[in-house]
Amino acid sequence: MQRRRLPALAATLCLPGLQARGQAPWPTRPVRILVTFPPGGSSDITARLLAEHYSATLGQRFVVENRAGAGGTIAALALSREAPDGYNLLLSNSAPITTSPPLYPNLGYDPQRSFTHVTFIGAAPIALVVNPAFIPAAELPSLLAWMRAQPSPPAYGSSGAGAVGHILAEMFQRRLGIALSHVPYRGSAALLPDLLNGQVPLAFDTLPHYVEHVAAGRLRGIAVSSPERNPMAPALPTLRELGQPELVALNWVGISGPAGLPPAIVERLDAATQAGLRTEQVARRLAEHAITPTPLGPAAFTAFVERDVREIGGMIRALGITAG
To answer: What's the CA gap between 84 and 81, in Å, rounded?
Structure first.
């Protein structure tokens, strides 16, 4: 009797339905998304928007955790040490992947080999903005004249050492022969109040945080760092238009996991991300933060990172830019 039942039992174990239950597709429990900057900035908002979409479409809760500091490298290092099981992800961006590695020695991770870069989402420009109560300049030539006339280097704010705004400001100084004093903040949300009250008279930071204040006259926009004007602030010229074609810098964002993320998880996460970017709601919310969805899959995103690390990271080293 027992021998006759064994083939039936073996056949039952091989039924497709039972196999599927034994190998449930990822995710089967909540997933954490690390964000490299504090709450309130464009990276944080993008991560929360995607977390909402993932939770609705992938059947598990996606939770955002802000791990700010050291130009995004604290969050990136933490992610690089996680198991590649799909339950810890990073809203990767320019700072921890491209601009911070040349500034911080002995990071403990490699921007290419330590991660699986899943989906490139899009990019936002940096805006050069001033407080008109402290700086009378209304356009770039008069701003340069004002800077050169000051008895000591004027202070400028950025969202942190290693952030794209910091790197653009350092390039700006070297290209134009200007001396400025860097005041790094822990994110845009911390920088904005000090810019509005004049603690720092100008800033290089991601555009969307300042559009409302520029429109109200509390701040004055001078230029943006994108190749073309941004629809969020079409009146602001690009630095390229103003005769500075080399001053192009974008704060890009993407989704990355630890190195060795299984292909099945990469494929499902990439598909979910790209599907979200095609929805009207997600695209509109990203546009509100000056990000035009430009989805790139794993191979194209990985190639983009390799090129960005080589070109932008190489330029940072060549210019001798430091984290100060």
So the answer is: 9
Q: Print burial letters for 272-311: b (CB count within 10 Å at least 16), e (below 16).
A: bbeebbeeeebbebbbebbbebebbbbeebbebbeebbee
Strand pairing category for 250-258 and 115-130: antiparallel
Phi/psi for 158 (5° steps) reads: -140, 170
CA distances from 129 to 32, 34, 180 (A): 34, 29, 14
Predicted pLDDT of residue 105: 81
Domain assignments of the chain as residue spans, ordered by start: 28-123+251-319, 125-224
The candidate with the shortest Cα–Cα distance to 38, out of 16, 76, 64, is: 64
Q: Which residues of 120-154 are buried (b: 16+ CB within 10 A; e: fewer)?
A: bbbbbbbbbbbbeeebebeebeebbebbeeeeeeb
Query: Does CATH place domain 28-123+251-319 in 2.60.120.200?
Result: no
- The token pair at 189 is 């949300």
**Assigned superfamily of 125-224:** Periplasmic binding protein-like II (3.40.190.10)
Asked if domains 28-123+251-319 and 125-224 share a fold, the reply is yes
Secondary structure (H, E, C), 86-105: CCEEEEEEHHHHHHCCCCCC
Report DSSP state, residue 10.
H
Q: What percent of the chain has pLDDT over 90?
A: 79
C-alpha separations of 73 from 67, 70, 95, 110, 119 in Å: 9, 6, 8, 11, 19
Residue 221's beta-bridge partner residues? 129
160, 184 contact by CB (below 8 A)? yes
For the stretch 15-28, pLDDT in tens is 333 334 456 799 99
SS3 151: coil
Q: 187, 37 in Cβ contact below 8 A?
A: yes
The answer on pLDDT for 309 being more than 80 is yes
Residue 214 has pLDDT above 90, yes or no: yes
